[in-house]
């Protein structure tokens, strides 16, 4: 069944604990953990749409990132099939392995991910300090002294799944991580994508609907998301490749990278007045917050929805996956389990 069952979830979390345990053994003894049961490559690569894996090449700048650019980059611009090539970068942290597992099994699963979309998880180096997103999942989480374990576990996870981009910077929420993400993508993935999105890991998305909004559009000067004043909310904010280039290369931006990343992103793109040529602004019900038990509670899903924010707990991901399944497969409906309580 496409929706992750409760039993399946427990099995998956058990597998993830193996990663953490193996990293702990390595950190304590220096002994390399045994290889995973499935075949893995020492260099993780992301597959082209159509499952054609490219040979690894050396990144243009030193980096511990597990992504390897393809040897034959695609040219930028509209494709023969009319589809843009899209990269979704999910901002997360090494310790949030459960949330990445939920995303892989729900909205980013092969059944739900269009063939012109890649999804990658963006992770910085663990510092031993829990980030706000960590504390939302485990309020009493203490990462003190566990940096080596989580960093090794993230690398092990990357080798298995090939969808983690490990940035060579300390994990942070408001100290330049998003800027470094765009800079790395521009320098190491030239010509591969028309649009690059930054998303939070507490979102549930309908990727085919995200893509549908861009059909037939020219990938030039696009700023996409939920607009607040002159910037897009950080839940899901996308820019076309020309704006990725601007963010990565403009000499003024490196001095403007500390603070709320969504607000800063808007400031970067307003440094030159003619950069943004197309505002793709979507409010409810297409993109919205989900406040469990609060004022937005009735507005959680509709045939138009493609991004819901504040999806904090496993039962929230599973709830939307169940609704998603029933919409895609009306001939095979399943029971829907609506969560109770708040998302925090």
From TrEMBL:
<keyword id="KW-0732">Signal</keyword>
<protein>
    <recommendedName>
        <fullName>Hexosyltransferase</fullName>
        <ecNumber>2.4.1.-</ecNumber>
    </recommendedName>
</protein>
<keyword id="KW-1133">Transmembrane helix</keyword>
<feature type="signal peptide">
    <location>
        <begin position="1"/>
        <end position="27"/>
    </location>
</feature>
<feature type="region of interest" description="Disordered">
    <location>
        <begin position="30"/>
        <end position="79"/>
    </location>
</feature>
<feature type="compositionally biased region" description="Low complexity">
    <location>
        <begin position="52"/>
        <end position="75"/>
    </location>
</feature>
<keyword id="KW-0328">Glycosyltransferase</keyword>
<dbReference type="InterPro" id="IPR002659">
    <property type="entry name" value="Glyco_trans_31"/>
</dbReference>
<keyword id="KW-0333">Golgi apparatus</keyword>
<comment type="similarity">
    <text>Belongs to the glycosyltransferase 31 family.</text>
</comment>
<keyword id="KW-0472">Membrane</keyword>
<keyword id="KW-0735">Signal-anchor</keyword>
<keyword id="KW-0812">Transmembrane</keyword>
<keyword id="KW-0808">Transferase</keyword>
